[in-house]
Amino acid sequence: MTTRGQTQQFDKALFKASVEKHLVTTYAKTPETADSRSWYLAVGKALAEISTGSLLETEKQIAEQNVRSVNYLSLEFLIGRLTGNNLISMGLYEEVSAAVEELGLNLTDLLEEERDPALGNGGLGRLAACFMDSLAAQEYPAVGYGLHYEYGLFSQSFEGGHQVEVPDAWRGIEGYPWEVVRPELGQTVGLFGSVETYTDKAGTSCRRWVPAMTVEGVAWDLPIVGYDNKSVYPLRLWECRSPAPFNLARFNDGDYVGAQYGQLEAGNVTKVLYPNDNHDQGKTLRLMQQYFHCACSVADILRRHFAAGNKIEDLAKLESIQLNDTHPTIAIPELMRILIDEHKLGWDAAWAISSKVFAYTNHTLLPEALERWSESLIADMLPRHMEIIFEINHRFMTLVEEKWPGNNEIKRKLSIIEEGQQRMVRMANLCVVSTYAVNGVAALHSELVKRDLFPEFNELFPGRLHNVTNGVTPRRWLKFCNPGLTELVNEKIGTEWPAKLEQLSGLAKFAEDKKFQKRYLAVKKDNKQRFADWVQDNMGIELDTNAIFDVQIKRLHEYKRQHLNLLHILSLYHRLLNEPTFDMHPRVFIFAAKAAPGYALAKDIIFAINKVADKVNNDPRLGGKLKVVFVPDYRVSLAEIIIPAADVSEQISTAGLEASGTGNMKLALNGALTIGTMDGANVEIREEVGDENIFIFGLLVDEVLKQKEEGHDPYRYYHADSLLRASLDLLNTDEFTPGNPGQLSAIRQNLLDGGDPYLVLADFADYVKAHEKIDAEYRDQATWARKTILNTALVGKFSSDRSIRDYVNNIWKLKAVSVK
Ligand code: H2P
After folding, report:
1. Where would a tag sit more exposed on the chain, N or C end, judged by fewer CB atoms within 10 A?
2. Is 666 one of the catalytic residues?
3. What is the DSSP string of 335-378?
4. Which residues on adjacent β-strands are paired with residue 232?
């Protein structure tokens, strides 16, 4: 029996039998002994059985058609829980809900048992997950390649307000029900050793790498289920294991390997995801992770290529490899090595292929976040790759000399190798030189990539630099996470929008409709209640759903300026206590964020927000007007309950520094009004929703640059603005840390004596003004309703389906394959 939208044959009795079978045979529980978690695992396994069949069938049909596909290489895929989302894509949500009910279970409760696979830090990893969802939904042939970390991003708790990190064993003891191991796809990866010259049969002198050791790559596939179709694409995650026993005689040769043995335990390579502290620290194990990921993935791409009967010369015709940031850059010299050393192509022939296979996405302009690896580290671990990088650079420098004869300054600037005490390899430069397309992730960001980051490259390679504005999947970020709004939208514009988000514009005509406004606001209220209940149950804080829910959820970083938000909260606290005429609508400030374990100031900011929260949440003098909630352990499943409950979306980075943002899109889609700077995709959100439906403040990119050039003087703002002064000075008292003054002063110190590198003080006054406007406008509920409805209606552009079509049309040139 198949119902509408259902893409899989579904027989309720058979499904129930399968769940019960897995409960007993896979998880060794009986219906009597099973707890909720065992039932969730059994349901997950029963569903995975269906999707694995479809995955194999999709692989087969795509291989038979031998069409062009994209390979998305990313060190991070922040997929979130799969069960609920896959049920929606399979069109089986109601059916499975009914089936488990007959087993005496509740689907919503079961879904809560799934741990988030936290295989990413933030936006970059979440984007990769949305892109896989959109590739499968639109049936553009694709494979996602990532790493099978044993531990994902740490889980976070707070002790006395301080962040504490605990390892995240996301698979649990039983393993993750959705993953399936593919032993036949295993790869062997070399490391260290040397390069030797030898003479081949034809008498030609050749180079080859003789690794000192090898490790084994094991492939695990997670199913990416296409929405409302029969395609299931693999997200292939590589796990590193040691071959038993370490078998190369050379392993015992050189002491240099022996000396590093501790780090070389193969099992360590994919042990844990590196937290993103936006600071390259040249960690050996991180480079090893990157190479392991690339070597396994490139080998698997070639395996598929040859298995379909293709020749190496046709590689660029059939495969594109998208590098998600510079993290998988080492795939470039890896492919060159294979083409030259193993397939015996000459340099030019190899380059002609390789440079048409790779494309690169840049996600940041922050100089400290642009990866650089020391030449000596690469030369030691991957000696042949280092040779190839030198050769790429040598030929590139010839090109630069032709374009700008005798200009050594330009050469120094563009060179892949950075000269200095320790020579460094600039991975972004390697990417731009070696790929056929480079893209930024929002219009403004892509302009800045052209204008400020790579201007000379843009001259040298006209047409190589593109923009693809990010997007988010409407399936997870509206249909799944906001059932109330989904129902309302379905009623007004039908049910096709999850695959055609631009149709949401059909809601605009109801923006003034009083009845619709009421219902829309009622949905928001319900979502706020759902979140408030969660906060009550998990944190013991009571929230009033009549208050404005003001949300900032994202990685903790100075450039994202959670401390600007904090200063505003301090200013409200100060005014409530000191300005007798000051009035404000009750506000709940909601934060969620992890700080990289080594990032001291980020951790100080978390501590300060927690301390301020302790105080204001319990201060009767504030009359309940001000609440602050820092939700611990931010993750996808938390975002799914916070976002639908948000009234205000904080997107307040220093202009020019947030490449795009994607939380801004999710929040606007769910009806939160943005308070934001002219940065990243905020600029395009404003274009779509209109200036009157967004609260823009702060310096523009060029004003930021000018102010930095002229020398930003934080004390000038401090002395000129008494509210700012009062707010900052609160950090020096013991107001929030009774008996311990100075515990929060590091932030104040950074902003005043540390030079305020992210211009927090310069934007403070304008930010406060924008918040006052929000306060006033929220009080007029009809106006607010119109604005929030228009936000949902007018952000259809930010579907990741559109982003993927941009990539497909402008970069990858793929044709959809409809799986039968
Ligand atoms: C980063 C950028 C965001 C961007 C995202 C996806 C690295 O994410 O900073 O501006 O939207 O990539 O392109 P994040 O800061 O969340 O880790």
Report:
1. C
2. yes
3. HHHIIIIIS---HHHHHHHHHHHEEEE-----GGGS-EEEHHHH
4. 225
Mean pLDDT, residues 621-628 taken together: 97
Cα atoms in the Cβ-side hemisphere of radius 13 Å centred on 606: 29
Q: 695 versus 249: which is more confidently predicted?
A: 695
Residues 303-315 pLDDT 10s: 999 999 999 999 9
Asked if 545 is an active-site residue, the reply is no
Q: Does ligand 1 lie within 6 Å of residue 127's CB atom?
A: yes
Q: pTM for the whole thing?
A: 0.97
Return the exposure string of 382-414: e unless at least 16 CB atoms fall within 10 Å of the residue's CB, then b.
Answer: bbbbbbbbbebbeebeeebeeebeeeeeeeeeb
659 lines ligand 1 (CB under 6 A): yes
Domain of 660? 484-699+764-798
Whether residues 639 and 550 share a domain: the answer is yes
- Active-site choice (83, 361, 486, 662): 662
3-state secondary structure of 306: helix
Same domain, 412 and 527: no
If you measure from the C-alpha of residue 124 to the centroid of ligand 1, how many angstroms do you get, rounded to a whole number? 5
The pLDDT, as a whole number, for residue 467 is 98
Domain check: are 685 and 769 in the same one? yes
Instruction: Tell me if residue 271 is catalytic.
Output: no
pLDDT of residue 282: 58
Supply the CATH number for residue 624's domain. Answer: 3.40.50.2000
Q: Which of 554, 563, 712, 797 is catalytic?
A: 554
Domain annotation covers residue 508:
yes
Q: Which atom of ligand 1 is nearest to the CA of 361?
A: 13
Residue with the nearest Cα to atom 6 of ligand 1?
124
Mean pLDDT of 298-326: 98
Q: Whose CA is nearest to atom 15 of ligand 1?
A: 123
Residue 739 covered by a domain: no
Rounded CA-CA distance 206/195 in Å is 10
Q: Whose C-alpha lies nearest to ligand 1, atom 12?
A: 124
- In this structure, is residue 734 part of a structural domain? no
660-677 pLDDT tens trace: 999 999 999 999 999 999
pLDDT (0 to 100) of residue 7:
63
Average pLDDT, the chain: 95
125 close to ligand 1 (CB < 6 Angstrom):
no
CA of 659 to the centre of ligand 1 (A): 6
The alpha-carbon radius of gyration of the chain (Å, integer) is 27
Domain co-membership, 534 together with 669: yes
Predicted interface score ipTM higher than 0.90: yes
Atom of ligand 1 nearest to the CA of 557: 15
State the maximum Cα–Cα separation within the chain, in Å, rounded to a whole number: 92
Angle among Cα 648, 692, 527 to the nearest 5 degrees reads: 30
363 lines ligand 1 (CB under 6 A): yes
pLDDT digits (tens, 9 = 90+) for 582-608: 999 999 999 999 999 999 999 999 999
Q: What is the mean pLDDT of residues 790-796?
A: 98
Q: pLDDT (tens digit, 9 = 90+) per residue, 467-488?
A: 999 999 999 999 999 999 999 9
Residues 434 and 370 in one domain: yes
> Which of 531, 482, 529, 801 has the alpha carbon at shortest distance from 669?
482
Average pLDDT over residues 58-70: 96
Separation of alpha carbons 379 and 785, rounded Å: 60
Indicate whether 211 and 347 sit together in one domain.
yes
Half-sphere exposure of 781 (CA within 13 A, CB side): 15
Does 175 reside within a domain?
A: yes
Q: Is the CB of 124 under 6 A from ligand 1?
A: yes
What's the pLDDT tens digit per position in 106-118? 999 999 999 999 9
Are 575 and 619 found together in one domain? Answer: yes
Count of C-beta atoms within a 10 Å radius of residue 201? 5
Find the 80 Cα to ligand 1 centroid distance in Å: 17
Residue 276 pLDDT grade (very low, low, confident, very high; cuts 50, 70, 90) = confident
C-beta of 787 in contact with ligand 1 (< 6 A): no
Number of domains in the chain: 2
333 & 272 share domain: yes
